[in-house]
Every structure is written in C-alpha cells, then in structure tokens.
Design goal:
By secondary structure, this protein is an alpha/beta fold. It has helices at 6-14, 44-48, 93-100, 135-145, 183-198, 211-224; strands at 18-31, 34-40, 55-62, 65-72, 74-77, 82-88, 106-111, 125-130, 150-155, 171-176, 203-207, 232-234.
Length: 241
C-alpha cells in the first residue's frame, strides 16, 4: 500500500492480514449524522468470502499519522464486487473522510480479525445491545437470524430516520439514552435481562457498544447469568474518551 501504517500495520502484516483498495461509487446522507457510501471492493469479497456482521479496517490519515477504524459491510454483493458502509458521523478523521467522500475517491483497507459463527442451535430469542456505531452490524445479524425474535437495547435514541431493519412483529427495540458513560444502559439491561433469559430456552446475547460497556455486559451475562460463553458474542465498537 502507498502509505506507511506504523506499528499497527506491521503487526497486521505479520498476522497475514489481506490489503485491498476500495473506490467510492455513491454517497448518501440517510439520516442526520448518518452517511452511507457505496464502494467497489477491489477484489476483496472474492478473496475472503462473506459472513454476517463482517467488518474491515479502513485506514485514514490523522494529523499525518496512520489511523485505522473498523466498519461493517452493508449488503455485500460478491458477484458484483460491491458493498455499502454506513458512518455515524461525529468528530474525528474517519467521519471527516466520510463527510467529504465522493465518487472516485479511494481508501485502503485491511481484512483481519473479523469472524462470526451463526449460533447452533438457533436462538429461541436474541438479546442485543447496540448503538448507532454498531447499527450496520445489528442489521446484518437480524438479516442472518431471519425469523428469530429479538429484544434490543439501543443506546442513543432510535429517531432521526436511522436505517433500522427491525420488524415490529418480532423485534422489540428499547431506546436507552446515553448517560453516565454507558452505565445507564448497563443498569437497564441488568434490570431486565435476568427474567428474560430465564424465560428463554435458547438465549443468545450479542453486545456491540463502547468497549467499557461491552465488557461490563458480557461479563455480567456470562458470570452472573450463566449464559454459556459460546452463546455470548461481544465486541467493543468504540472507546469512550
């Protein structure tokens, strides 16, 4: 790749990560503070295959230094070699790039660390904790699980036209305002989840919030509620500053 990536890039290269270049073909503001880009994959999907919640590392320049962030693929099409990405816009070099992106722009990407196994046996109910940053992954998971009902705690509000793929007939979305650096969400989940898990023969817990919140809830589900570790999938999507 054209630009140096410092120690992070060196470590990923040692781990046999695969590098690709994506090209923007379309850009659309789907909601205030939420932008969708359509991209060509540079041959990635043919080389890596596709799985639910699949994500890649995009490389940005931040004050002259390389910076990588993970983003979920939206509607990947291996035959066409295309996919979309959705960006929750805030301060930072990744959001700055997404705001300005236009057809013809390119960005370098690395595939390493992504993975997801569809739970077996299938969940009798999904319990998910998400926020705008992980909404694309949540949508991908809901698509993959099809008819499985879900209870979803969504931190940060559900208004403003965010592109949810929830079905009100089988998905219950509980909007939770972000307070106390995520501790309010943790308290809400801890209050409701024990009874729900007890009433569910095959629960599956999926957590994708900020790193501290994700760790707290994953530990609670495994250690306090006794959900088997293979039935808990947790990944911190961002770090609270």
């Amino acid at each position: 790749m054209a630009q140096g990536r410092g120690w992070e890039g060196a470590v990923l290269k040692l781990m046999r990560a695969k590098d690709f270049e994506f090209t923007v073909t379309d850009a659309q503001d789907v909601a205030p503070g939420f932008r969708r880009l359509r991209l060509t994959d540079g041959g990635m999907l043919a080389a890596t295959g596709v799985h639910p919640t699949m994500w890649v590392r995009l490389w940005f320049q931040n004050a002259g230094k390389p910076h990588q962030r993970g983003y979920t693929l939206v509607d990947p099409d291996p035959a066409a070699g295309t996919f979309s990405m959705e960006f929750a816009l805030h301060e930072g070099c990744a959001s700055d790039w997404a705001r300005a992106a236009k057809p013809g722009d390119t960005i370098e990407a690395t595939v390493q660390g992504t993975g997801f196994d569809v739970p077996d046996p299938a969940p009798s109910r999904l319990f998910a904790c998400a926020d705008p940053a992980s909404l694309p992954a949540l949508n991908s998971l809901l698509d993959a699980l099809g008819p499985v009902p879900a209870t979803i705690w969504f931190e940060g509000g559900t208004g403003d036209g965010l592109p949810f793929r929830t079905d009100p007939e089988r998905h219950e979305v509980r909007a939770v305002p972000r307070r106390d650096a995520g501790r309010h969400l943790v308290a809400q989940v801890k209050e409701a989840l024990p009874e729900l898990v007890r009433a569910t023969p095959e629960p599956y817990v999926w957590i994708a919030c900020d790193t501290a919140t994700t760790r707290a809830l994953a530990s609670y589900a495994r250690k306090e509620l006794g959900v088997p570790k293979q039935r808990v999938n947790a990944l911190g999507y961002w770090r609270a500053s």
